[in-house]
Amino acid sequence: MDNFRLPAARGHKRTPVSIDVTVNGILNFVDGRITDLSEGGARVDGASMPARSRCEIHYGGQVTYAVVMWAEHDRMGVRFPYELAQGALYNALQSARNAAMIEPAQIFHSSRPPVFGRRGLS
Q1: pTM to 2 decimals?
Q2: How many Cβ atoms from other residues are within 10 Å of residue 29's Cβ?
Q3: Radius of gyration, alpha carbons of the chain
Q4: Gap between the Cα atoms of 115 and 113, Å rounded
Q5: Are the C-beta atoms of residues 64 and 57 closer than 8 Å to each other?
Q6: How far apart are CA 106 and CA 88, in angstroms?
Q7: Rounded CA gap, 61 and 74, in Å?
Q8: Element at 62 (helix H, strand E)
Q9: Could you tell me which residues come within 8 angstroms of residue 79 by beta carbon, excluding any fewer than 6 positions away?
Q10: The domain 15-110: what is its CATH number?
Q11: Which is nearest to 44 in space by CA: 61, 26, 24?
């Protein structure tokens, strides 16, 4: 019998975001953008460091520690050794999830005056 295993499901829901951050590696600071975020990790575009290296993600005056899980030329995936439960990145994640919960039609209806036509005829 084969020892084939399916990969384990992710423990956290990933949320698309656009958050400008600074990543601190061992010798340098690199600007990047988080485009995918969860409590357990993130995808950082515009920054790349070697796999298995440790780094710091600076955002909102706070530091979040991370380990690079995979890296390509211009992006990388990081895992947080301590899950996000508070702080600036966690707040940004919650804001992005809350914004995604509002349907576009509800956003437009809430900003329209309750009148008929362009001139406000009743």
Answers
A1: 0.73
A2: 11
A3: 20
A4: 6
A5: yes
A6: 27
A7: 24
A8: strand 62-71
A9: 40, 41, 66, 67, 69
A10: 2.40.10.220
A11: 24
Distances (CA, A) of 4 to 7, 54, 70, 71, 106: 10, 30, 22, 25, 47
The sign of the CA dihedral 107, 111, 116, 119 is negative
- In whole angstroms, what is the distance from residue 86 CA to residue 74 CA? 28
Unique residue bearing structure tokens 């979040």: 64
CA-nearest of 58, 48, 42 to 96 is 42
| pLDDT tens digits along 21-73 | 999 988 889 999 999 999 999 999 999 999 999 999 999 999 999 999 999 99
Percent of the chain with pLDDT over 90: 66
